[in-house]
Amino acid sequence: MEPTLESGTSVMEATVSGVHAAMREGRLTARQLVQGYLDRITAYDKSGPRINSVLQLNPQVLAEADRLDAHAAASPSVPLAPLHGIPVLIKDNIECAGVETTAGARCLQGNLAREDAFIVRRLREAGAIVLAKTNLHEMASGGETVSTLGGQTLNPYDLTRTPGGSSGGTGAGIAANFGLLGIGTDGINSVRSPASANNLVGLRPTMGLVSRSGLVPCGLTQDTIGPITRTVADAALLLDVMAGHDPADPVTSQAAAHIPPSYAEGLNRDGLRGARIGVLRSFFGEGPGHRAVNAVMQRALATIGARGAELVEIDEAIDPDALLADTLVHLYEMKGDLDAYLARVPSGVAVRSMEDIIASGSVLPGVIGTLKNAVALAGNETEYRERLQRQQALRDRILGLMAMHRLDALAFPHQRRLVAPVGEAQAERNGVLASATGFPAIVIPGGFSEPDANAPHGVPVGLEFFGRPFSERVLLRLAYAAEQALGARRPPDCAPALMT
């Protein structure tokens, strides 16, 4: 039986505020909440539709819940910690003490983390419980969420489609209510793609706002970690916990002066009123394959305008495909950054370098191709420096554009066409603007395509807001108000509430 959180409400679509209200009133324990999610994972991830989002459960999860329950019972007058008893799904390229970190690769089995990544430590200090590690596109090197260790994760809204990626295990798991909060990583699209594909909220923070220590890297100029949640309010609560300086990740030193007392306290249902939002038309498709997404975007933007935002048409010729081809640097950094990580893994792990992974022959063929390409590019300093210069030029161009039009944010679909079916490559995603600049972006549920036999609700479409550096408070305010206006979040039919 799923525990009752509020009158008439089960673990389905639970929020941090709802859970904490039930805990304070004595109607819910952390153990009951954890068990409710474990039951759903058993019923729907490993059986039934076999969504296949979870790679491994935390073997200590119930003991951790019991410890938190005992602490709360012993100190009933002490306020609950910000994430007390909240079960979190964490992408399996982030280290959690006592649990393997595999990045979905069989050759990294045995990589038992000695300590928590910085952000996991922050989560635990805030009272959160690591429930499970989730599947990802192997080595975080693709957008379809398939790995040799975990296989193919399915999109719970259309089981014939992928869940986006590379953080698709976290996305599918949060969408299907297998955990309350989720953590993903984003090198190009990888937090926002699963959010768009799974009717969720996904935030890529400004580079330097959130530590990457304890991450299996793909290229640290672009790699970051961000929340994947069902609501903007929960994403803001999660960012309040995650943001901060970590001496082990020097880039976070620049963020200290930009972190407000609280992101969550800045949310406002009327937050769209008076905002100037630039609609970046070059990030919309124009062919027959784009009609479904464009129809959702047209309705969503009309609603946002009706709630008081001024929509400014931006016809600047910024080509997302050209940015993908010419500005990204992760392949030039991957070998050095990944080799440095592998040099520190436990002795029982067979691979100690990128060449070892390639030689093992145990990762997906497409990932092997990416790794070989990264090896070939690793020494090309001239092209690497040119790409870094293009990134800086892009930052200057975007800031100039936003200043000229007095914009609070840019808006566009995260993906110009519906998320790819299983077996096809992900196409026409727009996450490159944030990854190439290091600026923040947030995806919220924009709506659904027309329903069909495979997708009873239709296929989710995500709306992306993009902002200036360290403007997360503004983006969250806009996203929250838009989320409330659109009301597009709904759970998938394939994983309904469990009956008694």
From TrEMBL:
Source taxon at top rank: Bacteria
A family per Pfam: Amidase
InterPro entries, sorted: Amidase_dom, AS_sf
GO molecular function, one term: glutaminyl-tRNA synthase (glutamine-hydrolyzing) activity
EC number assigned by the record: 6.3.5.7
Occurrences of domain Amidase (ranges): 33-476
Keywords associated with the record: Ligase
Protein's name in the database: Glutamyl-tRNA(Gln) amidotransferase subunit A
Name of the gene: gatA_2
